[in-house]
Structure prediction request, 693 residues.
Amino acid sequence: MSNLVIVESPAKAKTIKKYLGRGFEVVASMGHVRDLPKTRMGVDIEHDFTPKYMDIRGKGDLIKSLKAQAKKSDKIYLATDPDREGEAISWHLANMLKMNLDESNRVTFNEITKSGVKAGMDHPRSIDMDLVNAQQARRILDRIVGYKLSPFLWKKVRKGLSAGRVQSVAVRLIVDREEEIKAFVSKEYWTIDAKLLTKGSRKAFPARLFAKKDGEKVEIANKEEADTILAALDGAEYIVLNVKKGVRRKSPAPPFTTSTLQQEASRKLGFQARRTMKAAQELYEGVDVEGLGAVGLITYMRTDSLRISDEARNEANAYIVEKYGEKYLPPSPRVYKSKSNSQDAHEAIRPTMPNLSPEKVKESLTNDQFKLYRLIWERFLASQMANALFNTVSAEIGANDYLFKASGYSVKFDGYTVLYEESKDEDAEENGALPPLEPEEKLRLKSLDGTQHFTQPPARYTEASLIKTLEENGIGRPSTYAPTITTILARAYIERDGKILRPTLLGEVTTGLMKEHFSNIVDAEFTAKMEKDLDKVEEGKLSWVKALDHFYGDFAGTLEKAEKAMEGTKVLIPDEETDIVCEKCGRNMVIKLGRFGKFLACPGFPECRNTKRIVQETPGKCPLCGSKVLAKKSKKGKQFYGCEKNPDCSFMSWDEPTSDLCPNCKSTLFKKRGKNAKLYCAKEGCGYEQIVK
Prediction:
């Protein structure tokens, strides 16, 4: 008897084949085999939004091969990914291969290990049409928005633009944040900070003035007020009034979901969401591990569930006890509650074999795979460990009519932090341990300073904080965040500045137009409500046709009004003027956006057609010829540094030139980042290096 198992990727096919053995043929569909046509809408709106699916161009030979193999097989199993996209692919395959949709021919694998594959094959089911309809509804909705709105933007703004249910809201968030920053008015304030010493101590600890002795809070608006207080404290005695001691418990973060994995990989590893998902897909589908063969190292990576199987928890507990001891286990097993709208069919993202530490598989993984596996493994193990305990101390210190506060902590028990700590977008400063302090104790003043501060505007979004905001507001699904960010960058609505995402003029103009004429499309609450309707389709509580009908009635009317309101008008995108003078006609050149990115152009076009590359200078000088070193971008968008005399001078480096000079030969020092960060001289024969902490 021959059995055919169809999966999505060759890597997954290879791993599964190893576990199924003889009697099974495992082949890959290479993703979707049918989809809406590329060159037209492909949706019959008048007849219940009927989609007109077509075989994907370029997949003819693959489809023929799948049909031929299916004919030779006694049983066909559809084993595409365990989510609605995978369900839809299975449904398309079933229709293409003329399979019975009521038969139990659908299998799913939460993890691609021996036990995971066996569990999936032991429990085949029929195709879940609620999942399929949820995918269809999303696909058709996005097609309608894209195909109706994009031509409007082409006519009114610029060709090549696009709009989307999730992407337009994401751009709006970034544009709105930029407007907040521009409108922000910074306010001056001051703090009074003391450095104090206990008797016989050489190490000072910090304390900050916060109130008067009568309890009135002190807020210092300017230097004059700060100087008045400093004068009032001149010669004051600093006496400890009271000391509060306590123990603070800190619990570990839960294991990863898709969204939190993307956020943490961005913060800790500097990975973009697309890079994270690529490495996660590879780890899930299976890699060749020395001694184990092809094996999936993590569970399915598209999930918003925090559920963990008892088997995985028991394996984690056994590893923790063996490695760290019983005291590192919590009093009772940790159970994390998923959000109410999460799809709990899957587990959280975790290692499939908790006892397989990152170091054991390092040699079998690529650099990205290893970094991500270590992050997932450490987070999961830590999520099952005991709380960390901290001894906290807070002291009030009197000085004349004023009160200072000093606080600190020390580690009582490291708990899960022995392995892993969650990072934040903005890490709060925390003081270390305070020296032993007693009430009525007199302290010595080492220094007393007034420090000027200014209130800061809200921070621009990073990829991590944008993903967090999208998820918190229920916009899109975590699996869509990586392609959404890729799209809005490719459309030049936003741009990267290091880790920061900022809007372009095009993004600001387009968002302004969308806010004026299509407020619902860029409204976070409306988009979140639409997402809830789509979730109801997935749960079988709402017809997918009704969900689309609810949306389309208002949308069609809004589009018609917008076209009438803007008839004969076009939105101009203002050019960004620079201080670079056109050497041909003397005008200040402007930044233009072309097929290959930004470039400088003369605003006198067509009379003056002068254009040039945008050159970003650095403080560095070339170690070979002494010319300027310029910041450049590779074809893949990675920053590197090269001599301005290229190609005559061949100098190139991935490391950033600094303004520091070599103490030996006075050449530019370059900064190498990473684990072994250092400043070094690139001049041949010098060899100077300085470790950077």
Notes: The chain has six domains: 3-127, 150-183+462-481+501-565, 188-243+393-423+431-454, 258-383, 576-612, 616-691.
